[in-house]
UniProtKB/TrEMBL annotation, chain A:
<keyword id="KW-0996">Nickel insertion</keyword>
<keyword id="KW-0963">Cytoplasm</keyword>
<comment type="similarity">
    <text>Belongs to the UreD family.</text>
</comment>
<dbReference type="GO" id="GO:0016151">
    <property type="term" value="F:nickel cation binding"/>
</dbReference>
<comment type="function">
    <text>Required for maturation of urease via the functional incorporation of the urease nickel metallocenter.</text>
</comment>
<dbReference type="InterPro" id="IPR002669">
    <property type="entry name" value="UreD"/>
</dbReference>
<comment type="subunit">
    <text>UreD, UreF and UreG form a complex that acts as a GTP-hydrolysis-dependent molecular chaperone, activating the urease apoprotein by helping to assemble the nickel containing metallocenter of UreC. The UreE protein probably delivers the nickel.</text>
</comment>
<protein>
    <recommendedName>
        <fullName>Urease accessory protein UreD</fullName>
    </recommendedName>
</protein>
<keyword id="KW-0143">Chaperone</keyword>
<dbReference type="GO" id="GO:0005737">
    <property type="term" value="C:cytoplasm"/>
</dbReference>
<dbReference type="Pfam" id="PF01774">
    <property type="entry name" value="UreD"/>
</dbReference>
Length: 264, 245
């Protein structure tokens, strides 16, 4: 897809957006492609050193049931991109009861850095969303990726959410986890999975520097843990009562990681 | 052992399906809690859940086991079924690493894999098991070995998936009896109530293994249970504990 296709069909919105970041030849990063419509309004929000910053702007009134959303970011060799969203993404029920899909595809080249730091995804009552985030990293790529999910708006039960996060490095699997919650998902609220917590998040930080300075496992507050992966990378997993408490845990472990490698 | 890409099936299409069973009784031997593969020393996260107050009685044991079955259990069953189908065990071991973010659980899975390998090579000696043991002397993930052992015993992917899925719940149920003083009859009743879901999980895992033969190992289930991963790391640091994981 060229990133400018938006079509409304009876079942829901089909929308795609695409970001391409490439070195600008002067030590910075240019954005030769920054294309998104429909629920995707992408803005260049500034430059800091070699890094280009992009934000997905506004409270996204999607995904609604039946929507098919695709977001793609390519960070070419030597480029640096930081992605954020200005508000949480809220999965809402559609008119038809059909599930929505939201696929994110990330590619990071050699010597390139991607900070992928969206605000939380909130699974509202009655929604049904399947997200897949796939990151393909070159051997010399660096990545900081955060994913947060909040199950239900305040005081409401969650919708159904299935979320897969796959990170591959140099063509080999590095991290592959699928989280599933809500109505129709067996055992999701029991003592093995969430145990009553309503916010869940993960960080994946990949940096070739971990090859020389492997991180040690680290536990924080009983509901968050940093653990080295089988490769030059660490993952943080955390559960919390709400989004605020979750962010505090993730931020705290992220700043710990920044003491080990410089990717942050 | 022949090394192939994880994108390609190692065997012809027909051979990915369940092989004719040499003997169904082999499945009983493999899935028996007394099979000397060291599983009894692991609680499957139950010990940490008991300490945290999330596992207190038969009802919470059932939800705990149900959650574990559909996450870590389904993931392990998919890997085991794929190994039993003859997909590249080293690529499956890598896939198991990616599906096990907890370093403590990866270490436990390899330790259990080594122990199961010893038992399997004694029970069903064959060149494939020898080659796998030689390729990874420090051990491969236990579900890979379980699948390879099932294959060596003449069992099929579905059998391997059943053994892995059952182990995902029988471990915590047995541990809960010791940790909580739970009535063993009640623990067994929990397992019996989960039996229809064990069927579902084993079926899904075996289907995923067939798909993995055509589409690559990446399509295998990757279900994750955040609390199991978080508490495994904590549990590994306890100075005194009843179970190894």
């Amino acid at each position: 897809m060229d990133g400018r296709v938006t079509a409304t069909v009876t079942a829901g919105v089909v929308a795609a957006a695409r970001i391409v970041a490439a070195p600008d030849g002067r030590g910075g990063t240019a954005l030769p492609v920054l294309a998104g419509q429909g629920p995707f309004a992408l803005r260049r929000t500034g430059v800091r050193g070699p890094e280009a910053r992009v934000a997905l702007v506004g409270a996204m009134s999607a995904p609604l049931g039946g929507d098919r959303l695709t977001l793609t970011a390519e960070v070419e060799d030597g480029a640096a991109l930081r992605f954020a969203t200005t508000a949480a993404t809220i999965a809402l029920p559609g008119r038809t009861g059909a599930p929505a899909t939201y696929d994110t595809s990330l590619r990071v080249g050699d010597g390139a850095v991607l900070h992928w730091l969206p605000e939380p995804l909130i699974s509202a009552r009655g929604s049904d969303l399947r997200t897949a985030t796939r990151a393909e990293l070159a051997a010399g790529a660096r990545l900081v990726l955060r994913e947060e999910q909040v199950l239900g708006r305040t005081g409401e039960p969650p919708g159904r959410l299935v979320s897969r996060l796959t990170v591959r490095r140099a063509g080999r699997p590095l991290f592959d986890q699928e989280l599933a919650y809500g109505p129709g998902v067996p055992g999701w609220d029991g003592g093995a999975v969430l145990g009553g917590h309503r916010a869940v998040g993960q960080l994946v930080v990949v940096d070739p520097a971990f090859e020389h300075r492997p991180a040690e496992p680290r536990v924080l507050g009983g509901t968050a843990v940093l653990t080295p992966l089988a490769g030059p990378a660490v993952a943080v997993g955390a559960v919390a009562p709400d989004a605020l408490a979750l962010r505090k845990l993730l931020d705290s472990l992220l700043s710990y990681i920044s003491g080990v490698v410089k990717v942050i | 052992m022949e090394k192939t890409s994880d994108m390609a099936p190692r065997k012809g299409r027909g051979e990915l399906r369940d092989q004719p069973q040499r003997t169904r009784a082999a499945l009983l031997i493999l899935a028996d809690g007394r099979f000397p593969a060291g599983g009894h020393a692991h609680s499957g996260g139950a010990e940490a859940a008991v300490k945290a107050g999330r596992l207190t009685d038969a009802a919470s044991l059932e939800t705990f086991c149900r959650g574990r079955l559909w996450t870590a259990g389904l993931t392990a069953a998919g890997i085991s079924a794929a190994a039993a189908a003859g997909l590249d065990p080293l690529a499956l071991d890598e896939a198991a690493d990616a599906r096990t973010p907890s370093a403590a659980l990866r270490a436990a899975a390899r330790r259990l894999g080594r122990q199961m390998m010893r038992a399997a090579r004694a029970a069903w000696p064959c060149a494939e098991l020898d080659a796998l043991a030689a390729a990874r002397p420090r051990g491969v993930h236990q579900p890979v070995v379980l699948g390879a052992a099932a294959r060596a015993a003449g069992l099929g992917p579905s059998d391997a998936a059943y053994a892995a899925a059952y182990e995902a719940v029988s471990g915590p149920a047995t541990a809960a009896v010791r940790l909580l003083g739970l009535d063993p009859f009640q623990a067994t009743a929990v397992l019996a109530r989960l039996a229809p879901e064990l069927d579902d999980v084993a079926t899904r895992a075996a289907e995923a293994a067939v798909r993995a033969g055509y589409e690559g190992i990446g399509v295998l289930p990757a279900g994750s249970a955040p609390l199991l991963d978080i508490t495994a790391e904590q549990h590994a640091g306890w100075p005194v504990r009843l179970f190894a994981s």
